[in-house]
Amino acid sequence: MASIHLTAYFSGRVQGVGFRYQTREIAKGFDVTGYVQNLSDGRVLLVAEAGEKELDSFLAEIEDKLSAYIRKTESSKTPELKGYTDFTIR
Fold it and tell me: For 3-12, what is each residue's pLDDT tens digit?
């Protein structure tokens, strides 16, 4: 199955609560590559690449496990891959 590129922005109380660490731990259970990063505006950026079903499941698991911190999620998908080799915290 062809991989796609996901960009997601999480708003809420998502910085200073271990959000990036927990996201990386969740990623270990999925066949995804990319990164998670704090932004200067208080949001967290998630960039991930995998098959579409894998990405949907990964995003759903993040939203489920970290729902206490997330107020809003904005995401988009594109077929243009960056070719990440692992999943990291930036």
Answer: 999 999 999 9
Question: Which pLDDT tens digit goes with each residue over 32-50?
Answer: 999 999 999 999 999 999 9
In the DSSP assignment, the letter for residue 60 is: H
In whole angstroms, what is the distance from residue 90 CA to residue 19 CA?
12
CATH 3.40.50.10860 correct for 3-78:
no
CB-neighbour burial class of residue 84 (10 A; exposed 0-12, middle 13-18, buried 19+)? middle
Catalytic (active-site) positions: 20, 38
Q: Which is nearest to 10 in space by CA: 87, 80, 62, 55?
A: 62
- pTM summary value: 0.96
Dig out the tokens for 84 from the structure: 């990440």
